[in-house]
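We emphasize that the prediction below concerns an isolated chain of 212 residues; any contacts that depend on oligomerization or on bound cofactors are therefore not represented. The input was used exactly as deposited, without trimming of termini.
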Amino acid sequence: MSRGVIVVQEAFGITPHVEDVVRRFEAEGYAAVAPALFHRIGSPVFSYDGGFDAIRPAMASLTGEGLLADVDAAVGSLGLPPQRIAIVGFCMGGTVALYAGAMRELGAAVSFYGGGVMESRWEGVPPLVDVAPGLRTPWLGLYGDTDAGIPVADVEALRSAASLAPVPTRVERFADAGHGFFNDARAASYSKPAAEAAWPMVLSWLRQNLPD
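Result of the prediction step, given as a token string:
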């Protein structure tokens, strides 16, 4: 395979949904890998119904340095030039995707509802509005207008910040979708119309920016 995708997990870990996204990219002809970002604490997987109290310590274990090390390892595992590799992240992983796209020159980056827009989420990772003007990788951001944790005003601030980058950037908003709208394993947040509209956008973005 001549092109690859790094799929970056949600805060719940490497769930069956993340594994399914890997398979979706493989079905499209990409080599795909999902690094377990919580590997330093045993790679836990959390229940969607368990609340965030259990997840917070795992989130707190992450740092910018560690995240970039994991991204670099994923790039190496794919055995492809970085410009032929995309990074696509969900929720927490969406934050990682934008950060990695600023710190590394990859072929493409996609963030599904990545938080930390106006505030730092981890040690060594500035707010995304501060990171976005330095994007070195073409970046696509996908956000739901009813996301309680990422207000539309923050999304628009991120759009403006990303527009200052020297690479192509694009932000798409989905009017009736909230946080986690792509996760079809989580009925409480899944939005079929938004998910079905977003997936072709992702594939198109990768086709546009990853060389054959």
